[in-house]
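[step 3/7] fold_predict: job queued, chain A
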Amino acid sequence: MKLNTIINDDHSAAFENMLLVLTLALFPLLYLTLKGWTNTLTIALCAIAIVHFFRLPRSSWQIKNISGTEWAVILALASGILAILFSQLLRQHLIAKPYDGPLRMLLAAPVFLLLMKKKVNFVEVFQYVCPVSLLILVTFVSFYPAQKELWGERFGTYFVDPNTIGINTMLLGFLCLFSIDSVKKDSAGVKVLKYAGILAGVYLEIKSQTRGAWFAEPAMLALWVTFHWQSKSRKELLISTLITVFATIGAYLFIDFFHDRINSIFFEIASWLNSTNIDTSAGLRLSMWQISWALFKENPFCGYGDLGYQSQLLMPQIQSAFSKEAISVMAAVGPHNEFLANMVRSGVFGFIAVSMQLFVPAIIFIKGLKSSIPGVKNASAMGLCYVMGMFITSFSLEILTLKYTNSFYGLMIAALCATVMWKRNNTI
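[step 4/7] structure written:
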């Protein structure tokens, strides 16, 4: 990986660059395997960035040197904290605990600025680390002795629940797919590694039995076909698509739990609509979304904080309209929707925050797809794949409520946006 030297004639820059690249390469490696891994490396990367900027002359890191697009990324990474702050100020109830998760995403902001300055091509490193991380995870999950005691037949780890593992392994599997020939023409060995990563991601996703992840797959596959429509032969794309379709049909016909979980989606939604059984898994989600919307309308600007909404569930209009089971699950786990969860927590500011976290990088990646520079296009496709997957799954799950998911998302957005932006700016 080629890095620009930031401070001329500074002999410590080589060590700093090596440390930065090593830490950047390591953060995805044990993301879902080892508790505290991603959070620790997020703090380490932030520390490297802060030390670097404080070593520079003050004039080189003034606010005026940050472009408008860079500010947009920084604000997107800071939006979670700002949403909590504004809603707490309106409620006149300031407490520190809710900031812990969103703070991890904010720590990625100085990392983003550092990667822009040093012109780091994150895809060069990530294309190898991503499949290796999935292969490590599939080995760990398969042999971890307490897995069945925690999650039954669904795959998870000692700190990652099946829904989180399903969504993230689906995303990492697709990133392996998008990484093929993303930097240069891959050798046979590298392609084998990436295909192994894809298969590991598919296996983990299916075994997690996370239906929200399965919903995202058609859109992700369509994005891959659209991106390669001009560069690959129609025959190759058709064969790849048919293999995927037939593999999915085969899984539906011959894997019992996959068949049952797919069928249950339609039966549960139908029974909720017909009011024959409103307390199924899907039915409870639909009811919790309605409850969340009712709570948001009652307090659209201030929100209720992390747990303040629970007392509002005792309101007569809630108690009379929804089942006891739906109210109880809502009190325990929240709405299972990233947008609604933040709207209940921080009002309209929560909605703005989630929108910025997803759509600011999406716009950067969409613009990057129009570039004639292969490196920009490929990094943009990977970034859009990641953000699109997060957006689709955000409707059925809260995807950024945990500290390590905030850390990982923040670093991925910082690294991919920086790669796209400096490469694009370098040619202007």
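[step 5/7] annotate
Residues 13-257+348-426 form one domain.
The chain is about 70% helix and 0% strand.
exit 0
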